[in-house]
Specification:
The complex is a heterotrimer of chains A (748), B (78) and C (231).
Chain A (H helix, E strand, L loop, with lengths): L9 H4 L4 H11 L5 H10 L2 H4 L4 H4 L9 E3 L6 E6 L2 E9 L1 H6 L1 H17 L4 E11 L5 H21 L3 E8 L8 E11 L14 E6 L34 H16 L5 E4 L4 H13 L2 E5 L12 H6 L5 E6 L4 H10 L4 E8 L3 E6 L2 E7 H4 L15 H6 L11 H9 L8 H4 L10 E3 L6 E4 L6 E7 L2 H6 L1 H17 L4 E10 L6 H21 L3 E7 L3 E2 L2 E2 L3 E10 L16 E5 L10 H5 L6 H7 L11 H16 L3 E6 L4 H13 L3 E3 L8 H9 L6 E5 L4 H11 L3 E7 L3 E4 L3 E4 H16 L1
Parallel strand pairs in A: 4-5, 9-12, 17-18, 24-27
Antiparallel strand pairs in A: 1-2, 2-3, 3-6, 4-6, 7-10, 7-11, 8-10, 9-11, 12-13, 14-15, 15-16, 16-21, 17-21, 19-20, 22-25, 22-26, 23-25, 24-26, 27-28
Chain B lengths: L2 E8 L6 H12 L11 E7 L6 H13 L5 E7 L1
Antiparallel strand pairs in B: 1-2, 1-3
Chain C lengths: L1 E6 L6 H10 L3 E6 L10 E4 L19 H11 L3 E5 L1 H8 L6 E3 L7 E9 L15 E8 L3 E3 L2 H9 L3 E6 L18 E5 L5 E4 L15 H16 L1
Parallel strand pairs in C: 1-2, 1-3, 3-4, 4-11
Antiparallel strand pairs in C: 5-8, 6-7, 6-9, 9-10, 10-11
Classes of the chains: A alpha+beta (748), B alpha+beta (78), C alpha/beta (231).
Chain lengths: 748, 78, 231
């Protein structure tokens, strides 16, 4: 054991508790060696071991007839027919991005893309969900610009289009930005491979970049080793991405799989060889030998522990039959990718680590994976909940509604994201047929009539106010976004960003969120096929808003029937699917409470309070059914879900994207100003703004009866202004500049 | 083993957008006495010996390491 | 007509280009950068991407690929060559086209559809376009800020080698219309003899209605028609 200037035992420096250390001793029947201790500390960390989330995550529905691979692999896989399947996964890279935004985000993309081609899929598209603090602050600006640039730089180079995403700015993310990266890939079903080691005597081949000290000394592992003098010699731990090597790695791996040369394939992510090798062995119920002296190194003098836990990027681990090795090497050679045999599959059930002939560690595989400790922290509702859920006094609303709308549409959370997606190649692979800016991106599937709709959604503020309802809304909104394009929701991948799970309040938030997600996914019958948990998103003891992010994929049987956000033709009728938010006979206080958690309350009145909108799952389904059926019947010109900013912002967005105006008459009592403000800006769920030709109104009405959904005609497309009753009258052209240029003026 | 340090910069008269951006940023941080900023590349090569070293460096620079249409270079041998 | 799409390590638009050409009725093949033959194609396309990661300079390493010698010979003998985006950068680095690329003036990657004015419609790459026709085609690059010295620019203009210019919605080549800051709004140009064409926009992304524009198809079809006219 290496000495420290303080008498902190090494296990503690590595983040293990004394009882965990004792458990390791019991498993091994002796004191662990250095290598073993390093390995256990990583495999039993929250990041690899999911020790605070595993039991709760079991509540999520994960199966359906078309699910080929659920959670527990590198990515989930669903069958979309015609012999094709889609791999899908989302993952967080929050902590690395907070340290170095460009490389943190870039390697986040690299990691999620590896998860996808590790399943045998060709990466088809990426999305991202981002959260920062106040973008007018220099540090937040730096993080935001760096993250966007890092995502673009890596994805653009790979030739994987970044097609959709979301970004929100809230003070709670100031010390902890969120960078959640999602990728999907396509594969012929026959090419599906898993990271399940098999075949005693098969060889373990490490492919890709050489191994350096990247990621060693990183956040979770050696964080408290600052007093160890040996650490001074070690370089900083920021991982650096090399998208060029990753691109070659993709081509090499897909060619290897097409030639049927691999028995198993896995990527090297957190904890490097350690987690990849032990998880592959664990899934296959076999043992695995690794000889660290065989691993090609980028820097001299690395210890066996360092080699085992290095997080150097752009590496994959494959299991190969001995007779195939020379062919594997030939393919890798063609792509300029080093491939080295570093171990073999055994029947010992152990992970044995060798340094040449010397055995430096020997651990039962199952003790590293399935037997990682599980903690169930008692959930207690945090104090703040009761406070923030109370709605304060009804404020004086600003009289000038046009000015209010202008302020809203130019605010960081509602303005155009053009500045971001112009930096992403969103068209490479020539599949993107609905570009960023609609409710979901839509990709065509070459060689078929089908299309895929993709979205990622979350609302941390709602979840802060009510994690159960907020998470249900995230699922419902994602489904609404998918449906608005004409696709049927197929699967969810979730990224669960929370604070320190050892705290009872965070434990409560987490469980409530998962309960909400489980119930909503069961209701809509959408399985969760993959995901990732990111805990400890705290700084100075203050946690971020609980932020479960929902990535969703939907399928269009006929991509020609896709529908988009913008209004198209003058004269089209504008319909509201769903209901008005207020009902007759409510007091002003009751009406005002409908603005709980809204963007309006935050932007205009600087208040974050109340309850998020209510979600009635049955009502939501009926609204979605109406929208989807109408699109399938080919009668909608546009469809857009109502979410952040409410009805008026949804209407304005359809005008701005379509470069056309609209005249709206809402049936609201003119004398009640509170009511009008609330109807325009509340974020009531289960609603869409759609437009259609007048001749199709009858057919639309028939569908609404069949599915039992409400709708009302509220206006007409046309002109160059958005006019709502006598309250809103704005020029679309004049609104466009502040909406389009808001981010430019924030960051430049 | 001679160590060669090569500095690549944009040729005079070619707008250095990165340099301009950094110059502006420095100005906004209060560093107003900076006249000009030029951004370039630094390459470090380690040679086995110094046989024909100048000739080799020049050839490398002209062939691959720089683009003579837009870039100039200087180097030093240690 | 037989077209060849060259794959360098790090190319990423080779499949898009291959698909677009086949869609337009070409008989298309891939050519690997280590091949020493062009497989008897009539048209060579260097596709977009990040050959060799664009490390050092865009196109700087790819120009030394084995296949580039063959492409040089093919070009010298009058064969049709199109370099798209990174392919254009490779042609510049190889000296098959004059000038060089600098970082975009915004120092940002730019992916958006732009307006391009056809400046010379007598070439084998533009004969299906009208004179001064405006094409809508996406660009997608970080280094598309074209540069050439005054003398070189004069030569380009005098010889009508500028093929495409960035213009605004009114067809004017204003300074703001070139999102990357390209000199004289140059988006595409040819060599003196008019058989080697480099352009920053991606015509392969604008060949089908479903992708939002079919204007890119005109450039490929021009090559096809001019070849068929010859044979």
């Amino acid at each position: 054991m290496s000495k420290t200037t303080r008498d902190v035992p090494k296990y503690q420096q590595l983040g293990l508790t004394s009882s965990e250390y004792e458990a390791i001793g019991r498993t091994l029947g002796r004191e662990p060696e250095d290598v073993e201790l390093a390995i256990y500390s990583l495999m039993w960390s929250e990041h690899c071991g999911y020790k605070h989330s595993r039991s709760t995550l079991k509540k999520l529905p994960t199966t359906k007839d078309y699910v080929l691979q659920g959670p527990g692999e590198n990515a989930g896989v669903i069958d979309i027919g015609e012999g094709k399947a889609i791999a899908i996964k989302i993952e967080s890279h929050n902590h690395p991005s907070a340290v170095e935004p460009f490389q943190g985000a870039a390697t986040g993309v690299g990691g999620i893309v590896r998860d996808i081609f590790a399943m045998g899929a060709r990466p088809l598209a990426s999305l991202n969900s981002l959260r920062f603090g106040d973008p007018t602050k220099p540090r937040q600006k730096y993080l935001f610009e760096g993250v966007v640039s890092g995502i673009g730089s890596y994805g653009n180079c790979l030739g994987v289009p970044t097609v959709a995403g979301e970004v929100y700015f809230e003070d709670s993310y100031e010390g902890n930005c969120l960078v959640n990266a999602m990728t999907i890939g396509i594969l012929p079903k026959s090419r599906l491979i898993t990271a399940k080691a098999k075949g005693i005597g098969n060889l373990v081949v490490l492919m890709g970049s050489k191994t350096g000290r990247d990621g060693i000394g990183g956040a979770s592992v050696l964080a408290s080793q600052e007093f160890d003098e040996t650490l001074q010699e070690k370089r900083p731990s920021v991982q650096v991405g090399d998208p060029f090597t990753e691109k070659l790695l993709i081509e090499a791996c897909l060619e290897l799989l097409d030639k049927n040369l691999l028995a198993a394939l896995g990527d090297l992510g957190a904890a490097g060889i350690t987690s990849s090798a032990s998880e592959m062995a664990s899934r296959g119920g076999v043992g695995i030998d690794i000889d660290v002296s065989k691993v090609p190194l980028r820097e001299p003098g690395m210890s066996p522990s360092e080699i085992m836990i290095s997080e150097s990027q752009e590496r994959m681990l494959a299991v190969v039959e001995p007779k195939m090795v020379s062919e594997v090497e030939a393919v890798c050679n063609k792509w300029g990718i080093p491939a080295t045999v570093v171990g073999k599959i055994t029947e010992t059930g152990k992970m044995d680590v060798y340094d040449g002939k010397e055995k430096v560690g020997s651990m039962p595989v199952i003790s590293l994976t399935d037997e990682a400790p599980i903690y169930d922290i008692e959930p207690i509702m945090p104090e703040y909940i009761k406070e923030v859920q109370k709605m304060g006094d009804v404020p004086t609303f600003p009289e000038d509604m046009n000015a209010t709308l202008l302020k809203m549409i130019g605010s960081p959370n509602l303005c155009s994201r053009g500045w971001i997606w112009r930096q992403y190649d969103h068209q490479v692979q020539t599949n993107t047929v609905v570009l960023p800016g609609s409710d979901s991106a839509v990709l065509r599937l070459k060689g078929t009539k089908k299309g895929l709709a993709l979205t990622v959604d979350g609302n941390g503020r709602y979840c802060y106010l009510d994690p159960f309802m907020g998470t249900q809304i995230a699922v419902a909104e994602a489904a609404r976004n998918i449906v608005a394009t004409g696709a049927t929701p197929m699967a969810v991948t979730d990224c669960l960003n929370f604070g320190n799970p050892e705290k009872s309040g965070i434990s409560w938030q987490f469980r409530k969120a998962i309960d909400g997600m489980a119930q909503a996914c069961r209701h809509f019958d959408i399985p969760v096929v993959s995901g990732n948990v990111s805990f400890y998103n705290e700084s100075f003891g203050k946690a971020i808003y609980p932020t479960p992010t929902v990535g969703m994929i939907g399928l269009l049987d006929d991509v020609e029937k896709r529908t988009t956000t913008p209004f198209k033709d003058a004269g089209d009728l504008i319909l509201l699917i769903g209901q008005m938010a207020t009902v007759d006979g409510q007091s002003d206080e009751e009406i005002f409470s409908l603005l709980g958690g809204s963007e309006y309350l935050k932007t205009i009145h600087k208040r974050i309070e109340g309850l998020p909108p209510e979600l009635d799952l049955d009502l939501e389904s009926r609204s979605q059914d109406l929208c989807l059926e109408a699109i399938k019947n080919g009668i909608l010109s546009s469809a857009h879900d109502i979410s952040d900013g409410g009805l008026v912002v949804a209407l304005l967005e359809s005008c701005l994207y379509g470069d056309i105006g609209a005249k709206i008459e809402l049936a609201v009592e003119e004398e009640s100003f509170v009511k009008i403000v609330v109807e325009l800006f509340n974020e009531a769920q289960s609603r869409f703004i759609v437009s259609l030709k007048e001749k199709d109104l009858g057919e639309f009405g028939e569908i609404s009866k069949e599915v039992g959904a409400d709708f009302m005609v509220i206006g007409k497309v046309g002109g160059d202004r958005l006019i709502i009753n006598d309250k809103i009258d704005v020029s679309i052209k004049e609104m466009k500049k502040p909406w389009e240029e808001a981010i430019d003026s924030l960051v430049e | 083993m001679p160590k060669v340090k090569i500095y690549v910069t944009l040729r005079d008269g070619i707008l250095d957008v990165q340099g301009k951006m950094i110059h502006r940023a420095l100005g906004s941080l209060g560093y107003e006495n900076v006249d000009e900023v030029k951004v370039g590349k630094y390459l470090q090569l380690e040679f086995e010996d110094d046989a024909d070293i100048d000739q080799k460096i020049k050839k490398m620079c002209e062939q691959l390491l720089t683009n003579p249409v837009i870039e100039d270079y200087t180097y030093e041998v240690e | 007509m037989k077209a060849g799409v060259v794959i360098f390590p790090g190319s990423n638009c080779e499949t898009d280009t291959y698909d677009a050409l086949n869609y337009l009725g070409f008989n298309t093949e891939y050519i690997w950068h280590r091949d020493s033959s062009l497989h008897k194609v009539d048209l060579v396309i260097l596709p977009g991407g990040f050959s060799y990661g664009d490390y050092l300079r865009c196109g700087a390493v790819a120009r030394f690929s084995e296949i580039m010698e063959e492409i040089s010979r093919f070009a010298d003998s009058g064969g049709l060559v199109i370099g798209i985006c990174n392919g254009f950068q490779i042609l510049l680095e190889a000296g098959l086209l004059p000038g060089a690329m600098l970082h975009n003036k915004s120092l940002k990657f730019i992916c958006q559809t732009v307006n391009l004015r056809v400046e010379n419609n007598t070439l084998p790459f533009t004969n299906q376009c009208g004179a001064g026709e405006i094409l809508r085609i996406p660009i997608n690059h970080y280094e598309g800020n074209y540069f050439i010295d005054d003398e070189g620019l004069k030569e380009l203009e005098d010889n009508s080698q500028v093929v495409l210019r960035y213009v605004d919605e009114n067809g004017e080549a204003t300074a703001d219309a070139a999102p990357n800051g390209a000199l004289a709004n140059i988006a595409g140009l040819t060599n003196k003899s008019g058989n080697v064409f480099g352009l920053m926009p991606h015509p392969e992304r604008a060949v089908e209605e479903i992708l939002g524009s079919v204007d890119g198809a005109k450039l490929f079809l021009s090559a096809k028609i001019s070849k068929e006219a010859v044979s």
